[in-house]
Amino acid sequence: MNEIHKPSLTLRSPAKINLFLHIIGQRADGYHLLQSAFQLIDWCDTIYLRSTQDNKIHRINPIPGVQPENDLVVRAARLLNEYCHTQHGVEISVKKEIPMGAGLGGGSSDAATTLIGLNQLWNLNLDQKTLSELGLQLGADVPFFLFGKNAFVEGIGEQMQGLALGQQDYVVIFPKTGVATKAIFQDPELTRNHGQITMEGFLASSWSDLSNDCQTVAMRICPEVKQALDWIRQAVPGSEPRMSGSGSSVFAVLDPKTDRDKLENLLQNLPKGWVGRIVGGLNKNPAYNLVSSD
């Protein structure tokens, strides 16, 4: 007997970098108020979704050491399944390319991509606002990836305006060791009173007008951040590298005149355990370009 056909989707799930991060205040509940620009990049995981009729969430090739209740793609699928009371199930497989713990949003992106894909695969027809409200239950960055395009971000990360960015390439380095976000935001030396800017002000700014307010604290907590910044300065003379978000990944904008072949060779000889690559900026989340096997 032939197996009953099971519709499936293959989706690319992108990372992001924070082009800058200013902390402009702190709420009474302890949450920090920030301003940032989120740039999607073509460093992507690949998510494979295959619909089933057993109302169960099957995680194929799970990440070693990560329990299902802590796996964001499993949590995303269960959340959507329970919210919609659907009788559908799914087999989920993830090809990881974005390093874990790098601060590039890989887990949040994978969760968002799972919600986007299952909304299509299960014919749920939920709008973006509903998906974002669900996504926020999974993590603060999930709504950004559901937003689907680059954004000027404010508040505690929930206020987003679409941001038109020109085509740009970057070099991104993850120096193996992660940084605990909580430790940075609890540090007494963290800047919490950066002056506010508007989105128009950001677009008119020069690179040196902007900064990452978490970077100084992160370099003290995690010396590898400084080492990675120094590596880029040496590999790409004249660049002004910056940490992304709360780290520990760092990046630099690449000038069109950069010798890409030389830089690629240098990236092949990073310190042991480090991961790095040249990436291009994206204007749209490729998860919305759904690829079906039907």
Question: How would you characterize the overall build of this protein?
Answer:
- With 294 residues, the chain is of the alpha+beta class.
- It has one domain (1-294): Ribosomal Protein S5, domain 2.
- It contains nine helices and eleven strands.
- The chain has helices spanning 72-84, 106-121, 128-136, 142-147, 181-186, 199-204, 215-221, 223-235, 260-267; strands spanning 8-26, 32-52, 57-59, 89-95, 151-154, 159-162, 169-174, 242-243, 250-253, 275-282, 291-292.
- Strands 1, 2, 3, 4, 5, 6, 7, 8, 9, 10 and 11 form an eleven-stranded mixed β-sheet that branches.
- A hairpin with a 6-residue loop joins strand 8 (242-243) and strand 9.
- Helix 1 packs parallel to helix 2 (106-121) and helix 7 (215-221) packs across helix 8 (223-235).
- It is globular, with a radius of gyration of 20 Å.
- The model has no long low-confidence stretch (mean pLDDT 94).
Overall, the morphology is globular
Helix content: 25-40%
Largest sheet: 11 strands, mixed
- Strand runs, count: 11
Element layout with pairings:
Blueprint: E1 8-26, E2 32-52, E3 57-59, H1 72-84, E4 89-95, H2 106-121, H3 128-136, H4 142-147, E5 151-154, E6 159-162, E7 169-174, H5 181-186, H6 199-204, H7 215-221, H8 223-235, E8 242-243, E9 250-253, H9 260-267, E10 275-282, E11 291-292
Parallel strand pairs: 3-4
Antiparallel strand pairs: 1-2, 1-11, 2-4, 2-5, 2-10, 5-6, 7-9, 7-10, 8-9
